[in-house]
Amino acid sequence: MLDKAGVVAVTHDSVRLNVCGSCCSALRKPNNVPRLALRNNLYRGDLPERFQDLTWIEEKICAIYCVTAHVTRLFQSTDPTRARTFHGNTCAHEMNVVSTAAVLPRTPADVNGLLSVVFVGPGKFDPNLLGTVFRVRRNKIWSFLVWLKYHNRLYADIGLDSTIANMYPEDDVLPGLSDGVI
Q1: Alpha-carbon dihedral angle through residues 136, 64, 71, 130, given to the nearest 10 degrees
Q2: What phi, psi does 98 have (nearest 5°)?
């Protein structure tokens, strides 16, 4: 599978592609494919439609392995007519330690330990104005974990704890997020 943006030109007898350096190097060797090629059993298929709206934070809650910490910078508009407007960015930083879960979902405290939010603005940080950036939905998380347990061999032996799932709101911001905002 190749991203459409990588296809430069197609004629009746040739195709021109844009390929990154490491992929190009791997493809020049006989019987070799790039390390991150889908042919290396990296493609697991599409998620069912009911899980295609998972937020990135919900995915992190359900992940067996966490290898990144996230720093989000949020800027509040200084325009009084747009006081409820935020803009910013999130950077993922690799950790030199892998957090491996034996039980899922991860607790809100565990997830918050992998996040930092730096808030810059004239007012006080109000998590209710975040929209869906840090949105979590308890039933969505639990349904996804149950589905993973039966459809992904990596999750087959992972324990699922409904008491941890109940620590999450029905549909709201990640609990405890505002406690760690700088």
Answers
A1: -10
A2: -100, 125
- Confidence (pTM): 0.73
Each residue's pLDDT tens digit, 51-82: 999 999 999 999 999 888 888 888 777 776 76
Question: Coil, strand, or helix at residue 52?
Answer: coil
The CA-based dihedral angle spanning residues 47, 176, 92, 69, taken in that order and rounded to the nearest 10 degrees: -100
Type of residue numbered 13: D
Tell me the per-residue pLDDT of 138-158, one tens digit each, with 9 for 90 and over.
999 999 999 999 998 889 999
CA-angle at 105, arms to 104 and 106, nearest 5°: 100
Structure tokens, 126: 């109000």
User: Which residues have CB under 8 Å from 92's CB, separation 6+?
Assistant: 68, 69, 70
